[in-house]
Every structure is written in structure tokens, then in C-alpha cells.
């Protein structure tokens, strides 16, 4: 395996970790107004992700840094194409982060409701935009012979990419709902089960629609016929199984199944993309690949030693964090935030 492929795989792993962890994080924020009926209940819902949300975002920062250092041409073209969407996403994430910190600074009910809706919007908008962005990466964007994006913001909004955005929102809401059933008690737990089930059917329909549309809007399944490959089939089976485990209230297995859905679906998408990292829908020759978008071999070699040294530390820290805060939260114990 050459270093270009090694770094592509490392970036895929970082995105898998990000979508798995931040997926339930966004999902809890999306379900906040529905599961939390009053101030105390919403505090419990927020406390369920309080110790985790900022550490989860480290995966995105690391993935972005890895793309910048290993594939600078990919980073430059991607950010020039998605800059407006990324600004909107950044504003939403900042508002969400501020909401976590400011919400409990005042006892005023209006104050807290404002920040609760900020958490909802700051979770919904990034989830939607990630789906739109990934769909654009798979379908291709307007990249010319100079490897530059020549389209507009509105060129990124097509029926297929918007479907991708809705599919991400529904899948993350399902993932977050199951996480809430693992972390809450009493009436909040019962309501979390109810809205998790409500999220399940839309998630199955939208994800299935996104995959079927992918046969027509992208070439990632090209050569596979009606069989999209083991990761995609595994993701579909895991998504269907998650509904069964929610129905019989085996939340641990349900969470593993939605996690597998996200892991395998992300793997399938990048598998269909490789060796390309950004597809040109003007001319395939203009597409960016792991070879024409990469840094020098010397740079990749130095970065590989850095990654091998520090990524295990990041994994150990996060595992310790989840172990320490593994207990359920309730109205009596929600004092984290």
C-alpha cells in the first residue's frame, strides 16, 4: 500500500468516527424539543451528551487537518466549492456550542428556551448540510481542467443532494434517539422510545431512496450491478435490524446496529469514490484523486509517523471519557451543564 492510499484510509476512518459519534450527538439535539417537554426534562436530554459533544467534534477537526496536510488540492477545491455551506455550518456549530455553555447561566425561562432552540437548529443544520455535501462529493461537482470549482452555491442543491441531506437528518435522529434510550430513565426514557420509533420509518425510507437514487445520480455502484457490495448490503441489514431491537427494547443492540449502519455506509461511499476524492461532472479527467491532489511523498511519510503516534492517544482518551460518564442521567443527577 502506498502512502497516498494509507492517508485516504486514515481520513475515511476519521470520517467514520465523526459520523458515528457526532451522529448521535446531532440526533439528540434534533429530538430535544420532542423528548424534553419541560425545562427539567430538556436539561436531562442535554446532559446525556454534555460530556461528549465537544470531544466528538475533534474527529472533524482532525479529518479536516489531515485533508489539508495530506491532500492540499482536495482541501482547496472542496472549500472553494462548499465555502458558503461551510460558513453556515460553522455558524450553526458555534451557536450550538455557545448554547451548551450559556443555557444555564440564567434562570429565565425565555433565555433557556432560546438556547434550547439554538441547540436544535445547531444540530439540524449541520446534519442536513453534511448529507448535501456528501451527496455532492458522490455525484460530482463542476471542476475544470485547472482543478478549480466553477459552479455556484445553487448548483450544489439538486433533488439528489437534498435527498441526501434529509437521509442524514433522519438517520442521525434515529441514532440519537436510541442513544437517549440508553442514557435516560422514567418518562423521558418512554418518550425517547416513542420518538425513536417515529424516526425509524422515515430513516429507512429516506436512506433507501438515497441509495436507489445513487444508481442514477452517481457512478459509485458502477460495475456492481444490482449488488452494491458487502458494506452497503451490511449497512442496509443493520438499519433494518435496528428497528427490531428498538421494538423489543434492546437499546444496546439497537445502538450497535445504527452505528454499524453509519460505519458501513460511510465505508461503502468512500469505497465507491476511491481513488478519486472529488469527482468532476464536467470531465472525468478533471477529477481529483489521491495522487494528483496529494502532498509530496516526504510530507506524507513524516505525517504518517505523527499519526501513528497520536491517533491511539486520542482513541484512548475518548474511550476513557465514555467509560467515566457511562451511567444514565435523570432529573436528580443532571447537574453536569
From TrEMBL:
Keyword line: Cell membrane, Electron transport, Heme, Iron, Membrane, Metal-binding, Transmembrane, Transmembrane helix, Transport
Keyword Transmembrane helix assigned: yes
Stored Pfam families: Cyt_bd_oxida_II
Gene Ontology cellular component terms for the protein in this record: cytochrome complex; plasma membrane
Topology of this chain in the membrane: Multi-pass membrane protein
GO MF term set: electron transfer activity; metal ion binding; oxidoreductase activity, acting on diphenols and related substances as donors, oxygen as acceptor
Bilayer-spanning residue ranges: 6-35, 81-102, 114-141, 161-183, 195-217, 229-246, 253-274, 302-324
GO biological process, one term: aerobic electron transport chain
Taxonomic superkingdom: Bacteria
Major location (coarse): membrane
Keyword Transmembrane carried by entry: yes
Location within or outside the cell: Cell membrane
NCBIfam families xref list: cydB
PANTHER family per the UniProt record, alphabetical: CYTOCHROME BD-I UBIQUINOL OXIDASE SUBUNIT 2, CYTOCHROME BD2 SUBUNIT II
Family: Belongs to the cytochrome ubiquinol oxidase subunit 2 family.
Designated name of the protein: Cytochrome d ubiquinol oxidase subunit II
Amino acid at each position: 500500500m502506498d502512502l497516498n492510499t494509507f492517508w485516504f484510509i486514515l481520513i475515511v476512518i476519521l470520517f467514520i468516527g465523526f459520523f458515528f459519534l457526532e451522529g448521535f450527538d446531532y440526533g439528540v439535539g434534533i429530538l430535544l424539543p420532542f423528548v424534553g417537554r419541560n425545562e427539567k426534562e430538556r436539561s436531562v436530554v442535554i446532559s446525556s451528551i454534555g460530556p461528549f459533544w465537544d470531544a466528538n467534534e475533534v474527529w472533524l477537526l482532525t479529518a479536516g487537518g489531515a485533508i489539508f496536510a495530506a491532500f492540499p488540492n482536495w482541501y482547496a477545491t472542496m472549500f472553494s466549492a462548499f465555502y458558503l455551506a461551510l460558513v453556515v455550518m460553522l455558524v450553526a456549530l458555534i451557536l450550538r456550542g455557545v448554547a451548551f455553555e450559556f443555557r444555564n447561566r440564567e434562570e429565565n425561562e425565555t433565555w433557556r428556551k432560546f438556547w434550547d432552540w439554538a441547540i436544535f437548529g445547531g444540530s439540524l443544520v449541520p446534519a442536513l448540510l453534511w448529507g448535501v455535501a456528501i451527496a455532492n462529493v458522490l455525484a460530482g461537482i463542476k471542476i475544470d481542467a485547472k482543478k478549480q470549482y466553477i459552479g455556484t452555491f445553487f448548483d450544489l442543491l439538486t433533488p439528489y443532494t437534498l435527498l441526501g441531506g434529509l437521509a442524514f437528518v433522519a438517520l442521525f435522529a434515529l441514532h440519537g434517539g436510541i442513544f437517549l434510550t440508553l442514557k435516560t430513565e422514567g418518562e423521558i426514557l418512554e418518550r425517547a422510545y416513542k420518538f425513536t420509533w417515529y424516526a425509524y420509518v422515515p430513516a429507512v425510507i429516506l436512506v433507501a431512496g438515497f441509495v436507489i437514487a445513487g444508481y442514477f445520480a452517481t457512478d459509485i455502484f458502477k460495475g456492481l450491478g444490482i449488488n452494491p457490495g458487502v458494506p452497503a448490503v451490511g449497512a442496509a441489514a443493520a438499519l433494518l435490524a435496528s428497528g427490531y431491537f428498538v421494538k423489543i427494547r434492546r437499546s444496546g443492540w439497537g445502538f450497535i446496529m445504527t452505528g454499524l449502519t453509519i460505519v458501513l455506509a460511510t465505508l461503502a461511499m468512500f469505497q465507491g469514490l476511491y481513488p478519486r476524492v472529488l469527482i468532476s461532472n464536467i470531465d472525468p479527467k478533471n477529477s481529483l484523486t489521491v495522487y494528483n491532489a496529494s502532498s509530496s511523498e516526504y510530507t506524507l511519510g513524516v505525517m504518517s509517523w505523527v499519526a501513528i503516534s497520536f491517533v491511539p492517544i486520542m482513541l484512548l482518551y475518548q474511550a476513557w471519557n465514555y467509560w467515566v460518564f457511562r451511567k444514565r442521567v435523570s432529573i436528580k443527577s443532571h447537574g453536569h451543564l
